[in-house]
Amino acid sequence: MPNIRKLLRASPNLKVADEDAARKPLSSGDKAADKQLVEDLARQISDLQDILYAQCKHKVLVVLQGMDTSGKDGTVRGVFGRIDPLGVRSVPFKAPTEPEKSRDFLWRIHQQVPAVGELVIFNRSHYEDVLITRVHDWIDEAECKRRLAHIRDFERMLSETGTVIVKCFLHISAKEQKARLEERIADPNKHWKLQPDDLKERKFWDDYQKQYETAIRATDADHAPWYVVPADSKTHRNLAIANIVLETLQDLKLAYPPANPAYADLKVD
Amino acid sequence: MPNIRKLLRASPNLKVADEDAARKPLSSGDKAADKQLVEDLARQISDLQDILYAQCKHKVLVVLQGMDTSGKDGTVRGVFGRIDPLGVRSVPFKAPTEPEKSRDFLWRIHQQVPAVGELVIFNRSHYEDVLITRVHDWIDEAECKRRLAHIRDFERMLSETGTVIVKCFLHISAKEQKARLEERIADPNKHWKLQPDDLKERKFWDDYQKQYETAIRATDADHAPWYVVPADSKTHRNLAIANIVLETLQDLKLAYPPANPAYADLKVD
Q1: Where are the domains of chain B?
Q2: At residue B24, does pLDDT exceed 70?
Q3: Region A212-236: what's the mean pLDDT?
Q4: What is the DSSP string of A102-143?
Q5: Do A111 and B116 touch (CB under 8 A)?
Q6: DSSP 3-state assignment of A222?
Q7: 3-state secondary structure at position A192
Q8: On chain B, which terminus has fewer CB atoms closer than 10 Å, C or N?
Q9: Residue among A99, A113, A154 minimizing CB distance to B103
Q10: Number of residue pairs across A and B with CB atoms under 8 Å?
């Protein structure tokens, strides 16, 4: 499967409504084999992350965005769950707190960007500030445009100061979301993941899709690419994101820092 | 003295070498009277800051930059020293730490920007990242240009998200710096302010002036103006900065939140 990133990269003319969330372009057709492949890829990502951490040179930021139940948490576990927590940091962004609201919307985001040697996963992100906020008219179109420009500037700055950025839109269908919400309702152990408001947000489905389309088109760039990940299948979603991340890490030509010849003669008393 | 900001605003063709650091365009000619005026202005600033804090609407950022001994600490004390510490925050930026160096140069800066209701003073700032770094060739000209663009984007974003920005270049002459350094050397109680390296940096005087000129010209904007403050006289420096800050606060048309008529009838048991 050469260059999966090209295959899933958001098109400049992206129409979210036309994107089939159920397609599985990367699947072998055998679910067990696909799952095994995800495992293999997750281990390769873990191996490369070990070098990333040792080399302490690159910074990697993975942004996960998607509707409720689209599988952001599942991706963190399934794709990044093999990495030593030393070098990986998953940052969930919830509704902003009062101190966060009393600064610009990028304030809390900037604090969490990766240091050298780190791979950071944003579970939701600054994109919420142009999605839910715009869908509910908490900000007008002019403010939304300004924020999209701020995001472009911010991500370009991060890129120019050495951060590799990968942005994944976990694209599910309204029908699949319904099934997943019903599953959560049926399982008391999953009630903690459920907010009654989640059910209300479904009414704004088309607005959300439209706003994702606007945000993705406005902020896709070669240094901060968006990938549209068909996510109705959890296995395929992980397969896609694992491949995207692995290809990105492979591009970095990571290498352990050079060995120190003098160390070979060291004796430990 | 109408609109002191116009008088001291950096010109687009600023030539730092041509700026007279000893001039005192705001002085009454009577030093005692000037000092008294600084006191009065500092109190007016304090009164307005109290409203700023109560209103919890505006954010104000004052950036102080200047060569060693140019009077940044003295300005914090002399101009902002009357404000209740509840609503004012002075943030000194020293050489970046390892965690700070492992992110982009704006990371530590962004964390310290004012919240609504706050007046924040940056004692040195992100401008160090295009001054000392460029003077000593730690970054090349292309990187310096990129950083200046990052600063422009960052300050525009801060402005568009509600932060009022004031930037003061405390301009002293090489001769005045010599006198102040000698004073520090002569007074054991001032040795804590002295680094032997400060004396070495004097050799790069002209480079620093040139780099200040480049940075100021590249980042002056109506939403983030630079003021060139003649600072050989400490009293005049305070007089100038107090006036600039006061005029800026007056523009905000600050007002205490409306009284609640129902409160008038409240009884305290």
Answers
A1: 4-171+203-252
A2: yes
A3: 98
A4: TS-TTHHHHHTSPPTT-EEEEES-GGGGGTHHHHTTSS-HHH
A5: no
A6: coil
A7: helix
A8: C
A9: A113
A10: 65
ipTM of the complex: 0.88
Least Cα separation, residue B41 to chain A (angstroms):
28
pLDDT for A193 equals: 86
In chain B, count of helices (H) and strands (E)?
Answer: 11, 5
Instruction: State the pLDDT at residue B14.
Output: 96
CATH of domain A4-253: 3.40.50.300
What are the C-alpha distances in Å from B99 to residues A17, A51, B65? 43, 19, 23
Residue A111 and residue B111: Cβ atoms within 8 Å?
yes
* Interface list for chain A against chain B, based on CB atoms closer than 8 Å: 56, 59, 99, 102-107, 110-111, 113-117, 146, 150, 153-154, 156-158, 160-163
Contacts of residue B146 in chain A, CB cutoff 8 Å? Answer: 160
Least confident of A97-106, B82-91, B140-149: B82-91
Residues 6+ apart with CB under 8 A from B255: B51, B55
Single out the residue of B129, B133, B139 nearest to residue B219, CA to CA.
B129
Would you state the structure tokens that stand for residue B60, as one six-digit string?
């104000």
User: Hunting for tokens 């140019």 — which residue is that?
Assistant: B70
